[in-house]
Amino acid sequence: MSEQSQPISDEAFPFDPAEYRMGESIGYLMARAKNVLSHGVEQEVDGLDITHAQATCLMMLAAGRGSTVTDLGRELNCDMGSVTRLLSRLEKRGLIERQRSDADRRVVDLSITPAGQILVNQLPQIYCRVLNRHFRGFSEAELQTFRSMLHRIIGNNSG
């Protein structure tokens, strides 16, 4: 294994403030890439008369990644007030329903309506179209490596 491909030890810190250049910072580039992808999705879902945030919320509910405002707020890294307003717009459009939990009346459970499910069924095609456009030219191996690296970044935050 070459020196460049050696994993960084816990004692070594690869980022040096003296060498920091914002435009080349991994954090900055990740944020820019996320913004580019989000903008692509935003343009695509506009035809469905929803926002990217609303589409993401619907997909999370459909995938079981949350069933309450608190769950979604945590998953979206968003304050509860913003999530509540987003859910109110979805509910007003008849895409989700809110119902008080029988087990704990303080909890409001969320579910997707049949109209919301029709929309959810269209979203994977939109997301894949955006991803295919932005990841054009990447090999399957590169995508797997990238996905693995993202999982590692996320995992490093769990302690």
TrEMBL record:
Domain HTH marR-type residues, every copy: 23-155
Keyword Translocase: no
Key words of the record: DNA-binding, Transcription, Transcription regulation
Transmembrane helix keyword on record: no
PROSITE patterns: HTH_MARR_1, HTH_MARR_2
GO MF annotation list: DNA binding; DNA-binding transcription factor activity
InterPro entries listed in its UniProt record: HTH_MarR-typ, Tscrpt_reg_MarR-type_CS, WH-like_DNA-bd_sf, WH_DNA-bd_sf
One of the Pfam families matching this protein, by short name: MarR
PANTHER family: TRANSCRIPTIONAL REGULATOR, MARR (PTHR42756), TRANSCRIPTIONAL REPRESSOR OF EMRAB OPERON (PTHR42756:SF1)
Protein name in UniProt: Transcriptional regulator, MarR family
Organism: Cupriavidus basilensis
Taxon lineage: Bacteria, Pseudomonadati, Pseudomonadota, Betaproteobacteria, Burkholderiales
